Please model this.
Amino acid sequence: TIDATAIALAGRSALAVACRSITATPDGRTFFSSTEPVTIALAHSTGIAEPQPLVRADIEADAPTEVSLWLARDLEGLTLDGEPLTAQNCDFDAETQMLTLSLDAGKHSIAAPEARPVADGSFDLTIDGDAPASIDQEILPAYTGSGLLFANFSTEAGLHRLAGDAPEVPVALNGAPLDNAGGLIWLRESNTLEARLEEPSTVQLKLERLALEGEPQPARVLDDAPEGIKLEAESFADEGLGQASRYSHREFLSGGVGVGEWLVPGMWLSWDLDVPPGDYHLVVKGATHEARADRLIMLDGEPAGDGWQVFRFEHTGGDGATPEEWQQMMVIGADGEPLTLRLDEGSHELRMVCIDSRLNLDYLTLVPAE
Model:
């Protein structure tokens, strides 16, 4: 059993001796199988943010055997012992990208066309139309073809979003794919960019800073749990720029499960709403030992309230180890009144973005506005 996705993603090689099967983690699917024991060596391209295709597989069999292998690519350009692989001389499932072959005893090689390393490329990065004050770049040619482009840049920390079209190649920012940013990007004072280039090119990336408006308003602590529509925190439908934890060791929580590790600036969680149309206030049952935990709140991709406002949740007495450390907190808008979410008929997305500090969650409540 191997982390086959990591091998395909990171461009590592793998060697298995007297092997009948290789199971991929974490999903448990078959990465390679053979009806007879074989020795197999695998090599994948080096990639950024997504699995990369098989470059070469060398197989040695002591007896005739049938093998199946995940290619992470289509058949185009692949050869078996120097002869082109086609739909007529092999069994290939285009949906799963699994190749099945009958091999005679001996040594065999499945290979992709030789690719030339890419040694020229750069990022064209602008923030509010200007290049960062400091940016260092380099490209590392990959022996399997392509090139890995790296950059380090410094800027003022804060919330940003893409100002133009998304890059034409996969880009990772601070180790996370840009397409996982959910439209918002949190830049630190020091940041990294990575991209995989198939040919010499310039990767354009235009960002704009989002101005956070007004002073954060602290949530209003309620004495009792309000009546309304409860959303269990652990039911979040999506997340990005980090991975929250669902924990079940505090049995006094609603449903016995809470959400933690939501503390990295820019990290977001979202919940799907399918409730009767109307105006609602938002109450969070949360816990934090920090002096404050700041969040953005978005509805259907737009900021809730007046512009990009920060909503604050103040110290509750701890991170929630005991029932007393949890509080019901009504979210307050810039006008000092409870934030109102206007929900039309149909489905909606509620998203909360971490700006600062840890906030553990038990559940959210949508309270009908009077």
